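Schema walk-through. Below, the input block comes first and the output block second. Nothing else is stored per chain. Lengths vary across the set, and this one has 177 residues.
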Amino acid sequence: MYYSRIKLTISETIGQSIGAFILWGFLMAFLYTLVSKINKKDKGTIHLAFIMMTSYFLSAFLDYETVTLIDWATYDVLTIGVIIVWGVLIKQPKPIAFMYLILGLSINACLFFAMYYDIYVLEQTEVWWLWTLYAIGINVVDLLMVLVLIINKDFLGLVWVCNQVKARYMNRASALK
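--- output ---
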Protein backbone atom coordinates (compact mmCIF):
# COMPACT_ATOMS: atom_id res chain seq x y z
CA MET A 1 0.00 0.00 0.00
CA TYR A 2 2.81 2.41 0.91
CA TYR A 3 4.58 1.69 -2.40
CA SER A 4 1.44 2.35 -4.45
CA ARG A 5 0.90 5.68 -2.61
CA ILE A 6 4.49 6.75 -3.44
CA LYS A 7 3.88 5.74 -7.06
CA LEU A 8 0.62 7.75 -7.13
CA THR A 9 2.33 10.79 -5.56
CA ILE A 10 5.06 10.67 -8.22
CA SER A 11 2.40 10.43 -10.95
CA GLU A 12 0.52 13.40 -9.48
CA THR A 13 3.74 15.44 -9.32
CA ILE A 14 4.64 14.60 -12.91
CA GLY A 15 1.09 15.40 -14.03
CA GLN A 16 1.15 18.76 -12.27
CA SER A 17 4.57 19.56 -13.76
CA ILE A 18 3.34 18.76 -17.27
CA GLY A 19 0.23 20.85 -16.58
CA ALA A 20 2.40 23.78 -15.51
CA PHE A 21 4.50 23.38 -18.67
CA ILE A 22 1.37 23.41 -20.86
CA LEU A 23 0.07 26.49 -19.03
CA TRP A 24 3.43 28.16 -19.61
CA GLY A 25 3.18 27.16 -23.29
CA PHE A 26 -0.21 28.87 -23.67
CA LEU A 27 1.13 31.95 -21.90
CA MET A 28 4.12 32.06 -24.27
CA ALA A 29 1.85 31.50 -27.28
CA PHE A 30 -0.28 34.44 -26.20
CA LEU A 31 2.73 36.69 -25.62
CA TYR A 32 4.29 35.66 -28.94
CA THR A 33 1.11 36.30 -30.92
CA LEU A 34 0.60 39.58 -29.08
CA VAL A 35 4.08 40.80 -29.97
CA SER A 36 4.13 39.49 -33.54
CA LYS A 37 0.59 40.47 -34.60
CA ILE A 38 -0.27 43.53 -32.53
CA ASN A 39 0.16 45.91 -35.47
CA LYS A 40 -1.59 43.70 -38.01
CA LYS A 41 -5.22 43.96 -39.00
CA ASP A 42 -6.10 40.32 -38.25
CA LYS A 43 -5.93 39.75 -34.51
CA GLY A 44 -7.82 36.45 -34.46
CA THR A 45 -4.85 34.39 -33.33
CA ILE A 46 -4.21 36.82 -30.48
CA HIS A 47 -7.82 36.44 -29.34
CA LEU A 48 -7.68 32.64 -29.53
CA ALA A 49 -4.37 32.53 -27.67
CA PHE A 50 -5.87 34.78 -24.99
CA ILE A 51 -8.92 32.52 -24.65
CA MET A 52 -6.75 29.42 -24.31
CA MET A 53 -4.31 31.07 -21.92
CA THR A 54 -7.18 32.30 -19.74
CA SER A 55 -8.89 28.92 -19.80
CA TYR A 56 -5.78 27.00 -18.80
CA PHE A 57 -4.78 29.66 -16.26
CA LEU A 58 -8.18 29.51 -14.56
CA SER A 59 -8.04 25.71 -14.51
CA ALA A 60 -4.81 25.95 -12.51
CA PHE A 61 -6.92 27.16 -9.57
CA LEU A 62 -9.02 24.00 -9.51
CA ASP A 63 -8.37 21.83 -6.47
CA TYR A 64 -6.64 18.65 -7.63
CA GLU A 65 -7.96 16.81 -4.57
CA THR A 66 -11.65 17.33 -5.43
CA VAL A 67 -11.78 17.88 -9.21
CA THR A 68 -12.91 14.89 -11.25
CA LEU A 69 -12.44 13.92 -14.86
CA ILE A 70 -15.99 15.01 -15.64
CA ASP A 71 -15.08 18.49 -14.35
CA TRP A 72 -12.14 18.67 -16.77
CA ALA A 73 -14.34 17.49 -19.64
CA THR A 74 -16.96 20.10 -18.80
CA TYR A 75 -14.25 22.75 -18.63
CA ASP A 76 -13.06 21.81 -22.13
CA VAL A 77 -16.63 21.88 -23.47
CA LEU A 78 -17.13 25.35 -21.97
CA THR A 79 -13.90 26.53 -23.60
CA ILE A 80 -15.12 25.14 -26.94
CA GLY A 81 -18.32 27.12 -26.41
CA VAL A 82 -16.40 30.33 -25.77
CA ILE A 83 -14.31 29.77 -28.92
CA ILE A 84 -17.41 29.08 -31.03
CA VAL A 85 -19.15 32.20 -29.70
CA TRP A 86 -16.00 34.19 -30.51
CA GLY A 87 -16.02 32.65 -34.01
CA VAL A 88 -19.63 33.70 -34.54
CA LEU A 89 -19.03 37.24 -33.31
CA ILE A 90 -15.95 38.08 -35.39
CA LYS A 91 -16.44 39.42 -38.88
CA GLN A 92 -13.03 38.36 -40.23
CA PRO A 93 -11.95 34.96 -41.55
CA LYS A 94 -11.10 32.56 -38.77
CA PRO A 95 -7.42 31.69 -38.28
CA ILE A 96 -6.24 28.15 -38.90
CA ALA A 97 -5.80 27.77 -35.15
CA PHE A 98 -9.60 28.00 -34.73
CA MET A 99 -10.24 24.55 -36.17
CA TYR A 100 -7.23 23.00 -34.42
CA LEU A 101 -8.36 24.32 -31.03
CA ILE A 102 -11.93 23.10 -31.50
CA LEU A 103 -10.66 19.67 -32.56
CA GLY A 104 -8.00 19.52 -29.84
CA LEU A 105 -10.39 20.48 -27.05
CA SER A 106 -12.96 18.01 -28.42
CA ILE A 107 -10.41 15.20 -28.34
CA ASN A 108 -9.41 16.15 -24.80
CA ALA A 109 -13.05 16.26 -23.68
CA CYS A 110 -13.71 12.84 -25.24
CA LEU A 111 -10.66 11.39 -23.48
CA PHE A 112 -11.80 12.87 -20.16
CA PHE A 113 -15.32 11.46 -20.66
CA ALA A 114 -13.91 8.05 -21.62
CA MET A 115 -11.66 7.94 -18.55
CA TYR A 116 -14.51 9.08 -16.32
CA TYR A 117 -16.75 6.34 -17.68
CA ASP A 118 -13.99 3.75 -17.32
CA ILE A 119 -13.02 4.65 -13.76
CA TYR A 120 -16.26 5.80 -12.14
CA VAL A 121 -18.96 3.92 -14.04
CA LEU A 122 -17.19 0.68 -14.97
CA GLU A 123 -15.01 0.93 -11.82
CA GLN A 124 -11.93 -0.15 -13.75
CA THR A 125 -8.80 -0.25 -11.58
CA GLU A 126 -6.38 -2.04 -13.89
CA VAL A 127 -4.23 0.02 -16.22
CA TRP A 128 -4.98 -0.76 -19.87
CA TRP A 129 -4.46 0.85 -23.30
CA LEU A 130 -7.13 3.56 -22.76
CA TRP A 131 -5.20 4.94 -19.80
CA THR A 132 -2.02 5.13 -21.86
CA LEU A 133 -3.91 6.74 -24.74
CA TYR A 134 -5.36 9.26 -22.28
CA ALA A 135 -2.00 10.10 -20.68
CA ILE A 136 -0.21 10.54 -23.98
CA GLY A 137 -3.16 11.95 -25.94
CA ILE A 138 -4.03 14.78 -23.56
CA ASN A 139 -0.45 16.03 -23.46
CA VAL A 140 0.24 15.68 -27.19
CA VAL A 141 -3.00 17.46 -28.08
CA ASP A 142 -2.21 20.27 -25.65
CA LEU A 143 1.25 20.69 -27.14
CA LEU A 144 -0.19 20.71 -30.68
CA MET A 145 -2.65 23.42 -29.66
CA VAL A 146 0.21 25.53 -28.26
CA LEU A 147 2.21 24.96 -31.43
CA VAL A 148 -0.64 25.90 -33.78
CA LEU A 149 -1.21 29.13 -31.88
CA ILE A 150 2.44 30.04 -32.36
CA ILE A 151 2.86 29.10 -36.03
CA ASN A 152 -0.79 29.28 -37.22
CA LYS A 153 -0.10 26.88 -40.07
CA ASP A 154 -2.07 23.82 -41.16
CA PHE A 155 0.82 21.47 -40.34
CA LEU A 156 -1.38 18.37 -40.05
CA GLY A 157 -3.54 19.21 -43.07
CA LEU A 158 -6.78 19.28 -41.06
CA VAL A 159 -8.06 22.51 -42.59
CA TRP A 160 -7.16 21.27 -46.08
CA VAL A 161 -9.06 18.00 -45.53
CA CYS A 162 -12.04 19.88 -44.11
CA ASN A 163 -12.09 22.23 -47.10
CA GLN A 164 -11.90 19.26 -49.50
CA VAL A 165 -14.81 17.52 -47.80
CA LYS A 166 -16.82 20.74 -47.77
CA ALA A 167 -16.12 21.36 -51.48
CA ARG A 168 -17.21 17.83 -52.41
CA TYR A 169 -20.33 18.13 -50.30
CA MET A 170 -21.21 21.49 -51.91
CA ASN A 171 -20.61 20.07 -55.41
CA ARG A 172 -22.78 17.06 -54.64
CA ALA A 173 -25.51 19.24 -53.12
CA SER A 174 -25.53 21.59 -56.14
CA ALA A 175 -25.64 18.63 -58.54
CA LEU A 176 -28.75 17.28 -56.81
CA LYS A 177 -30.70 20.51 -57.38
